[in-house]
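hi! just following up on the protien thing from before. the input was this:
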Amino acid sequence: VICVECQVVNDTDDIQIDKDGWSARTIHMGNSVMFEYMVIVRKDTPTVLTDTFNWETVA
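and the predicted 3d structure came back as:
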């Protein structure tokens, strides 16, 4: 099982890590979102364990 973590930003993708060593921010404080998918990696087919959002419902 692996976790794939993605970040989507509307500005530059240059980030800084806060002093807590965990929180990530864009250097220009632009809007961003992070999300993660938990995936079972198998020989033939991966299985995504994380519920995913149905983007077709977004108007």
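The first strand starts at residue 2 and ends at 9.
The chain has a mean pLDDT of 85.
cheers
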